[in-house]
From TrEMBL:
Highest taxon listed in the record's lineage: Bacteria
Protein name in the entry: YmaF family protein
Pfam short name (any one): YmaF
């Protein structure tokens, strides 16, 4: 079975000796893909918290789906953490849009090694 997709490739700026590209898909089987914004504040641990913001990876519109996400937190107490995961499924809204819930824990970082919890909802 063949599924038509469209998109574009972008050469990575990484200095990795292996040559790599990023593929950005803009439509899947004739349907546009979409993204969601996400942001929030982590739990308060070891005397501080962090803010974060980002954009999910694209997913198909019009079908049940999830989105992968990745970002870094703000630098607080002289360090930052990575946030990475997969949203829950789409939650429909009365206006026809939808959002996704997400949650997890950050990477372990800091002078006193620790992690933070986070959770929230994406934009529509």
């Amino acid at each position: 079975m063949e599924i038509p997709i469209s998109g574009f490739m972008h050469h990575s700026d990484e200095t990795d000796p292996m040559h790599s590209h990023y593929l950005y898909i803009t439509s899947w089987d004739g349907k546009p893909v979409h993204v969601h914004e996400f942001k929030g504040v982590t739990s308060f641990d070891v005397g501080h918290n962090h803010r974060y913001t980002g954009t999910t990876e694209p997913a198909s519109s019009g079908v049940q789906h999830t989105h992968n996400y990745f970002t870094f937190t703000s630098v607080d107490d002289k360090h930052r953490h990575q946030i990475r995961g997969k949203t829950g499924p789409a939650i429909p809204l009365p206006n026809g849009g939808h959002y996704h819930e997400f949650n997890g824990v950050t990477t372990v970082d800091g002078t006193t090694p620790h992690r933070h919890r986070y959770s929230g909802r994406t934009s529509q």
